[in-house]
Amino acid sequence: MSEPQPVEYDYRVEQIEGSLPAGLAGTLYRNGPGRWEDHTGRPLHHLFDGDGMVSAFTLAAGQVHYRNRYVRTRHFRGKSGTRHLGTAATGGWLANVGRIPPNLANTNIVEHAGHLYALWEGGPPHEIDPVTLETRGVRRFGGRLRWMGSYSAHPSFCPRSGEMFNFGVEFIPRPHLRIYRTDVRGRLEHFRSARLPYLAMVHDFALTQRYLVFLVSPIIPDAMPIALGLTPLGDAMHYRPERGSVFILVPRDGGPIRRVECDAVLQFHLSNAYDDRGDVVVDAITYADGRLLGRIARFHTSSLSDAPSEFSRFRISAAGRVSREQLSDTPCEFPRHHGGYQGMAHRYAYVSSRRRLGSFYDSIAKLDLIDRSEASYTAEAAGNSFCEPVFTPRPDATAEDDGWLLTVEYQAAEHTSRLVIIDARDVGAGPVATAALKHHLPQGFHGSFSPGRAD
Ligand SMILES: [Fe+2]
């Protein structure tokens, strides 16, 4: 599942089971680390330290075409430093002091205003050719993405305006969120900045019709050992629940920023959020404690499966009170929903989840957030696992769940991967079609579906 894949492929997938849905045409793009070594062959230990490898599954005319390419970052080309999140550069502290990890472009891939971007939260996007997957270069949007150029891997799209919102964590002169808005023509502008209570890892945010919603978890680096080059960054990140959390609500209309403090919450991914009269409702995948951080830092030798998560809902009242409710105790990650319902009261969330104890994400689940029920499909063979389920609606659909979930299943016994397509109305029925690759893919992080790309 996390074996590297050094080969770049380009072929028509022969082994298709079931029938590809007639209305499903376009490309599923996926991104994730493909190899965990630097250009000298030195192994890297942190899950996040692998070079970004982009995959494209193109569905057109009843066929599936597969292609993958590494993003040609400076790191991939052997032209950047080798101090990584989880692995120090060789040469002791002198070789590490003042160095920041290289941009690996390995976390997400999204399309906006006709451009396809491979994203990594500590630096600017790499633009990717949507057909060939060749790397077109680093994009700073005409120089408007300044400073470190931090640009999170989780932009959010307004379904009404077509704008893409995103942010970067910057720490000079003080820790803050630098927030960007990109219009439908692809023009990026600095929208707002918001001070952070402490230097923290902020990975994701949510968008309502009124607010950008940030939930700051106290994942705090030990600044001194990092600055002195004594500790790899990944080993110096700690969960500090005594510091508490804060919701930062940034009004889209330019009004004053609201900050609402609450008990510490450990999360990486928010799901949807929406305004409910004066309240703001936001869903998140939350963890009970900080064990996950250590597991990720040493993923080759430790299991990710003993850091249980749950699906939680937070309500922030107009008076500044936060209430919390567990919507599902099924361990899960990688929440997705219908993009047309972004920022609106919605009914369904889709997640990778875990049914078998001790397994990785062996299931795809559909959570009904109104009935509080869930339906899931579990891989038939033990050891198999699914990545994030990407939802795409059926053309002309009116029901929220009328569409498909696209995910990639790693099949352990065969050591191969396959594209899995599930009808979102009936997740329990399992795949309506699968397309088996001739090889495996490392499971990767995030992706998106671009409809209608038939070439
Ligand atoms: Fe993420």
TrEMBL record:
InterPro entries: Carotenoid_Oase. Fe cation binds at residues 154, 203, 269, 446. GO terms for biological process: carotene catabolic process. One of its GO terms (molecular function) is carotenoid dioxygenase activity. The keyword Chloroplast does not apply. Its cofactor is Fe(2+). The keyword Metal-binding applies. It comes from the Bacteria. Its EC number is 1.13.11.-. Keywords: Dioxygenase, Iron, Metal-binding, Oxidoreductase. It is an enzyme of class 1 (oxidoreductase). Binds 1 Fe(2+) ion per subunit. Pfam families: RPE65. Belongs to the carotenoid oxygenase family. This is Dioxygenase.
